[in-house]
Amino acid sequence: MAETDYDARVAEEYRLAREVPRQGLGAWREAVADAAALAPGMTLLDVGAGTGAFAAAFHDWFGVRVLAVEPAEAMRSLIPRVEGIEALDGHADALPVPDGCADAAWLGSVVHHLPDLASAARELRRALKPGAPVLIRNVFPGRCDRDLRVRFFPETARSIDTYPTVERTCDAFATAGFSRVVLRAVPQQSAANLAEFADRIRRDTDSKLRGLTDDEFNRGMDRLRASAAIVPDQPATSWMDLLVLA
Question: How far apart are CA 92 and CA 75, in angstroms?
């Protein structure tokens, strides 16, 4: 999650608006299982864990212990407090975990918030066991056309164009000895239909939507509502990339 100021209200609105429902993450479960042989007794490091949706999913899906690192206190307070999930205050370049403690690392929608990717990569190298993978879920410049927000709010591509590219991300991680293993697009169902997706939008919880002018945002909502009326049963499916490094 972005290292920015959150109060309890904004954190809760983020959870309601941005978390993908568990039933919409089936493809991600399969993609992660293909990329990392996670099993009970292993430890996964969730860097920028936000409100803990994926931390909880990994714990439930694979029976792993999750170290959920999140710098924003209001976000961290919403991470489920259950056995097997530990919420930690920390940053990607200063992880509060021992050397070689994790069997895999997860960075979900976080690389574009990191000021120094190479420093984060070195810190992940320290925290991971030899050969352990880094799984990056993100949108990347030039690969975002199937993102729902870009579909209905095309001007959001302006902010995505400022994100690290796949190549830049791989180069930064290469300085810590990581190599690209796979890059694949993965679908997720953000809501049962487009009308529900529209109802869940909270502009102030989304940095891409906050960057739009009022006219751009309103036009996007009009497009979304119009599509929802035309295809009321169409699932709100978006796509993001999974980049695996090891």
Answer: 16
Q: What is the 3-state secondary structure (H, E, C) of the chain?
A: CCCCCCCHHHHHHHHHHHCCCHHHCHHHHHHHHHHCCCCCCCEEEEECCCCCHHHHHHHHHHCCEEEEECCCHHHHCCCCCCCCEEEECCECCECCCCCCCECEEEEECCHHHCCCHHHHHHHHHHHECCCCCEEEEECCCCCCCCCHHHHHCHHHHHHHCCCCCHHHHHHHHHCCCCCEEEEEEEEEEEECCHHHHHHHCCHHHCHHHHCCCHHHHHHHHHHHHHHHHHCCCCCEEEEEEEEEEC
Reported residue count of the chain is 246
Residue type at 198 in one-letter notation = A
pLDDT 10s digits, 103-158: 999 999 999 999 999 999 999 999 999 999 999 999 999 999 999 999 999 999 99
Average pLDDT over every residue of 197-213: 92
pLDDT higher than threshold 50 for residue 194: yes
User: Would you state the structure tokens that stand for residue 225, as one six-digit string?
Assistant: 């509502």
Q: Are 219 and 160 in contact (CB under 8 A)?
A: no
Give dist(CA 129, CA 111) in Å, integer.
21
pTM beyond 0.90: yes
Place of tokens 């090891």: 246
Rounded to a whole number of angstroms, the distance between the first and last alpha carbons of the chain is: 22
